[in-house]
Amino acid sequence: ALAFGVEALSFDRHATLPVSRRLRGGVLPEVEETVERSDGAPRQGEVDINAAVEEFSAALEGFMTKFGELQAQVSTTAKANFFGQTEKPEKIAERPDRVAFKQAFEHFTALQEFINKERSSSERLQFVASSMQLLRQAALLLAEEEDKIATAGVPQKTLDLLQSLRAQCRKKPKGTVAMAMDELKEALLPPIDAHKRLVAGIGIKRPEPVKAALAKEQIIEKLNAIPTFCLLNGEGYAVTVRGEDGSPTCSWFVDPNEASAVLTAAIRDNPNIKGLHLGVTPLGIAYGMCGGWGDDPPAGLNATLKLQGNRAVVKSMDSFLAKQLMEQGLPEAKWHLPVFCCDELQSASAMPMFLSRNDLVEAWELSGRPKEELPEALTVLDLHLLVHQMQTDKFTWNTVDLLCSRRAVELVAEAKQQAKALAAGKQGGGTDQ
User: Fold this and answer.
1) Which of 107, 135, 291, 315 is the least buried, fewest Cβ under 10 Å from its Cβ?
2) Residue 353, SS3?
3) Could you give the C-alpha distances from 329 to 106, 323, 384, 387, in angstroms and in order?
4) Could you give the angle at the alpha carbon of 273 between the alpha carbons of 268 and 274, nearest 5°?
5) Given CA atoms 37, 43, 48, 51 in this order, what sign does their dihedral have?
6) What is the Cα–Cα distance from 284 to 218, expressed in whole angstroms?
7) What is the pLDDT of residue 25?
8) How far apart are CA 219 and CA 51, in angstroms?
9) pLDDT 10s digits, 234-279
10) Neighbour count for residue 90 (Cβ, 10 Å)
11) Long-range contacts: 202-207, Cβ < 8 Å, 24+?
12) Which Gene3D superfamilies has this protein been placed in (predicted)?
């Protein structure tokens, strides 16, 4: 087994042992069909939402095409001086306002590429939030005067960059670059309108809020919006790490950064073990395998299965979360996982929840609210308690959305690429890396 410390990631150099040959790819064979179905089944209204996504993407592509055309134009042309003379194109391209315009184009090209990756995600709210961030940044760049409200939710480093680029591009109000900025401002209107329809489309297709208990299958589907990550060996079987008491433990990490750190440390400290990589399991499936429903662990497994949140956060909240379960008369849990939410982000048709305070803060800023106005007291529930409550009629549970971080989405893509590379290496007769 791999040794895993609480305060630091330290792995021994002994052979990595599979937890069980039943846990291939991080799931039990009997739930593989469920994983596939929950990952690919169309949801109510998805066709209409997909159409809205395509409309926005096309409008954004039109804006970026115009941006590219103007970038090529301003980098080689300029107004003639008093004597009717103009500089050579290479000299024009070196002007500060041209350099700034080019940097702005490159910045938004990178944003568009990121959004295009999220476009294929089944989590549309993440796509909406990311595209809203691009539009907000574009509006800040193109504005003649800065709108303080529009700056909310934009990272300070990015805000500083946009302010600097805007100042350079607007230095000559009647100049070539300033006029190009005005053209871009007009070109931004179609994406803004398309984005409004996208947001409205998602809102229209949401179910009517109903105070009713959710069935187990409905709860699993909601949990499955969050990916978890487990450590796999080159054969695709889950491997164990050592818990605080030294016993073998197989963990499904919800924090993508910790999952990456575990993988990096495992590869570094176990050079004799080939093919270590991350597997991806939807949270709803992992919750069941880790005893969330109170079922006995799968037969033949000589290890504890657990969901693992951010270690520092879980450690600081462990006793608080355990007390929650005790006060509700729920059984003592072998692991705890905090879920964060706040009333201010709730609407009549949506209640977003997060597995990280940082993810909630990011959503708060993306919604246009200043970070300093974030409530100090957030609602925190243990996942066991949330699942228990979702089986009651005390709230409109059908409005709950569990949202994952951008980094989690990126790590899912990276993990899939790692798995493909390993499979390709085996088929080609190569060795696992």
Assistant:
1) 315
2) strand
3) 56, 10, 12, 14
4) 100
5) negative
6) 10
7) 56
8) 27
9) 888 888 877 677 778 889 999 999 999 999 999 998 888 888 999 9
10) 9
11) 202/49, 202/52, 202/124, 202/125, 202/128, 203/349, 204/45, 204/48, 205/44, 205/45, 205/46, 205/48, 205/49, 206/349, 206/350, 206/399, 207/44, 207/349, 207/398, 207/399
12) 3.40.1350.100
In the block, tokens 């398309």 appear at: 194
Residues in the chain with pLDDT values less than 50? 1-22, 29-47, 149, 204, 429-433
Q: Are 139 and 131 in contact (CB under 8 A)?
A: no
Between CA 199 and CA 133 the distance in angstroms is 13
CATH class of 210-427: alpha beta
CA-based nearest residue to 402, from 282, 251, 261: 282
The residue count for the chain? 433
Kind of pairing between the strands at 400-403 and 351-354:
parallel
Q: What residue spans in the chain does CATH classification 3.40.1350.100 cover?
A: 210-427
- Determine phi and psi for 12, rounding to 5 degrees: -80, 175
- For 339-349, what is each residue's pLDDT tens digit? 999 988 887 77
Residue 352 has phi, psi (to 5 degrees) of: -75, 140
Q: Greatest CA separation found in the chain?
A: 89
Residue pair 302/360 in contact (Cβ under 8 Å)? The answer is no
Q: Are strands 248-253 and 241-242 parallel, antiparallel or unpaired?
A: antiparallel
